[in-house]
Amino acid sequence: MxxxxxxxxxxxxxxxxxxxxxxxxxxxxAVSKNNASxxxxxxxxxxxxxxxxxSQGAIVADGYYNVExxxxxDGTGTVAGNPTGTLEWTESHLNASSNGVLVKNGYMSxxxxxxxxxxxxxxxxxxTLWLSANIGDTxxxxxxxxSCNPDGEMLPMKRLSSTPYSLNSGRLGGLASSSFVQISQGxxxxxxxxxSSIFLNKTGTGGNFVQFQAAGVDALTIANNGDIAFGGNDDxxxxxxxxxxSTTGRNLSLSAGTGGSGTGSAGGDIVFQGGTGGxxxxxxGSVYLNGGNSSGSAAAGDILIGNNDAA
Length: 311
Hints:
Elements lengths: L17 E3 L8 E4 L2 E4 L7 E6 L11 E3 L1 E7 L12 E8 L7 E4 L2 E6 L16 E7 L22 E2 L11 E2 L2 E2 L31 E7 L2 E7 L4 E3 L81
């Protein structure tokens, strides 16, 4: 076929394009009223539809065409190769690979990402992404695309935009993704001042605030009244990390609640109690109070009891 598909880079060019975005940088969420749920899986392709006309304004002949698509980030999208932007992704629909694009009465429909998966190549969390299309001939065996008599990238390129509901895909329950804690995503920074990084207000009854498990067995739970319970799957310790060289170790204080203002408001007690024996004739657990071990010729740590630190 002669050079008759240079639409968008010729004066007599018509291209009708509908883009249905079905992919997001994060999981796409469906939100209904106050309920929100994450989709278990999505079709990570983009449906591209268009109608092709030749340089004389006539509909191109029916057939399977070799077509190349590219997505650029940033740039102007007005120059072939988009030199001021960055090429993120390329996909070639070739007849030689049985992936040619069917054109019927000028209309074509392509699932972008069906030949070359987007994967992590494209950062969809961007304001400016350009889609370019380059139409080749109907040769059944040409490969690579550059050998398929391509017409050149159509200009200006098509800037990707979202459908109305996909504008909400970056939100869950109306909240932006920055409002949520990520799991297994490394360190997260919290730049907010005078607010809690994680704030839970449990208004229902029953259930725990937090429940951590290891291999399906509770390792740590925080009840809705604030009680902390370690799991029975292993021994447990509460420690303060060792101090840097030539630095005194940091204190660990355990204090019961101070009585409220007014008369007769006693302070809370601190109770140390070994575990209760189980089964038949099970011995109770002991309570040990140990001062810290010394190093070298220094004295071991004391155990001091009383208001006046009486030993």
